[in-house]
Amino acid sequence: MSEVMQPEFGKWRKVFFPIHAYELKKVIPMSLIFFFILFNYSCLRNIKDALVVTGPGSDAEVIPFLKGFCVMPSAVIFMLLYAKASDILSNEKLFYATLTPFIAFFGAFAFLIYPNLSLLHPSVETVHAWQAAAPEFLRWPLAIVGIWSYALFYILAEIWGSAILSLSFWQFANQVTKTSEAKRVYAFFGLMAQVALLFSGWLGEKFSVMTDTSAAGMDPWQISLNWLMGMVVFSGISTMLIYRWIYAYVLPDKRFYDKPELPGVSKKKKKAPFWQSLKDIFMSPYLLLIASLIVCYGISINLMEGLWKKQLGQYCTNPNAYNAYMSRYTFWTGICSIIMMIVGGNVLRAFRWFTAAAITPAITLLLGGLFFIFVLFKENLSGLLGTVGITPLVAAVLLGTVILTIAKSTKYALFDLTKEMAYIPLSEEMKVKGKAVVDVVGGRLGKAGGAWIQAAMLALISGATYFTIAPYVFGIFICICSIWLFSVKKLSVRIEKARIASGETNA
After folding, report:
1. Is residue 226 part of a domain?
2. 398: Cα separation from own chain's centroid
């Protein structure tokens, strides 16, 4: 009688923990790296907004100018340096060289720069005088000059998400993960990493609220920064130590990495010139479609977040209150993301790539449209809202929080994972240099694109605010989400062709 084949995993383990016991030696440290990087990303994301939105002489309207004219050029410079360094350094040394400057600055900001702001920043009166003498379109750029160290923190915090999270970690994961493992392992990486959102959200709120009872004469925000940046530095150092351990004790094991060389080890062949590599990348329809997904996501979320952060800045008027609210938002995003990771992991295994990848733009379009419509007509609902004891401002902040929480958790659970799976069929060089261009520059171009749209309206329309440009932004939002869905469809066709060419039987 023939032997009955048992399923690879039991019913519940297949849903919640589809990892073999022997794989834990690689999966756990990789998950810890993801945890620490995402913990820092979440802390920095909340703090950067609290700094610039509530800074002296500043407001939420500085954000599109920062993203469009400061972060984007900085991301391009980073990409050029990174691609050049990838020709010189092994992947391991490249990881350390990328991470170290960020950690050094964030530590220095809390303990050296912030305590000396009175010496480093021009006074608010000086900035107001500059603004009064300058043309209207320079109003917000001059506000950025007045808080230049906050702006530098904002720039590096923004680039952290692309340079360390999207590029350095996922490039490494794509190199050491087999295609057959990706659907199981990547979903687990994401599930474990969402714990970082819970932890960072809890700590951020704890440190912000804790300082409300600080001694007289002490700056509560300074105390919060010392604690939070201390944790960021600790996480960065821990990340590098775990990375070294993986290279020393995991990758030499052929069960986990079966290629003849460790990733990034110099090969005995002449590499293509850097600019030729860039040309090859931009001539690749496959990479351009991946870039389209990233750019469309960045623009659509940026258009929603700008309007939401303007209202949040009116609701939370000091940095600790703003950071506490953002930390609560991060915490609940983590809760929602964990639920979505479980759902998303099973969607990845049960459906083809297109189905999983199309969910995020569809949800963003539907819920984002609801948010814009509410904000545009919120004053008409003031009477109805008053009957339940809530103002239009509070209702808009809460609705935006819920919608962005759902959109972000869906992004973490499905968009990120499907995007990374799309890189796997590419050559090693395209995974390194192509990913650098697509993730870092594409990611920044997405946010910068939304920022340029809003900045142009704010600069060219006299007296414009986020509220007055909202109808125009809504129309652009619908167009971008439609392009996003179209790009998902086109890329799914190319992935299917790559799957068939490689001889795989499952998408």
Report:
1. yes
2. 22
- The enclosing domain of 208 has a CATH number of 1.20.1250.20
Question: Per the structure block, which two tokens stand in for 507?
Answer: 């998408």
Taking the CA atoms of residue 458, residue 464, residue 467 and residue 469 in that order, the dihedral angle to the nearest 10 degrees is: -60
Q: Which domain holds residue 33?
A: 21-261+273-500
Joined tokens for residue 333? 């995003």
What values do phi and psi take at 310, rounded to 5?
Answer: -60, -45
* Domain contains 4: no
- Residue 211's pLDDT is what? 60
Q: Tell me the Ramachandran region of residue 265: left when phi exceeds 0, alpha when psi lies from -120 to 50, beta otherwise.
A: beta
Residues with Cβ < 8 Å from 252, sequence gap 6 or more?
262
Q: Name the phi and psi angles at 45, rounded to 5.
A: -60, -40
Whole-number Cα distances in Å, 377 to 310, 388, 470: 16, 18, 11
Q: How far is CA 500 from the centre of its chain?
A: 32
For the chain, the helix, strand and coil percentages under 3-state DSSP, each to the nearest 5:
85, 0, 15
Q: Which of 413, 395, 366, 377 is nearest to 308 (CA)?
A: 395
Return all residues near 309 (Cβ < 8 A) that are at least 6 apart: 49, 53, 60, 63
Measured CA distances, 159 to 6, 60, 113 (Å): 47, 19, 20
Residue 468 lies in a domain: yes
- State residue 2's pLDDT score: 41
Residue listed under structure tokens 């609290």: 50
Q: What is the identity of the amino acid at 179?
A: T
pLDDT, mean of each 10-residue run, the chain (507 residues): 49 66 80 90 90 85 87 84 84 89 94 91 90 84 92 93 81 75 72 78 82 63 90 94 88 66 51 55 78 90 89 85 89 84 73 85 93 86 78 89 91 82 71 68 76 85 80 93 92 77 53
Number of domains within the chain: 1
Cα(435)–Cα(429) distance, integer angstroms: 9
Query: Cα separation of 175 and 492, whole Å?
Result: 22
DSSP secondary structure string for all residues of 389-439 = T--HHHHHHHHHHHHHHHHHHHIIIIIHHHHHHHHTTS-HHIIIIIHIIII
Does residue 105 form part of some domain? yes
Rounded to two decimals, the pTM is 0.76
**And the tokens for 129?**
């005088």
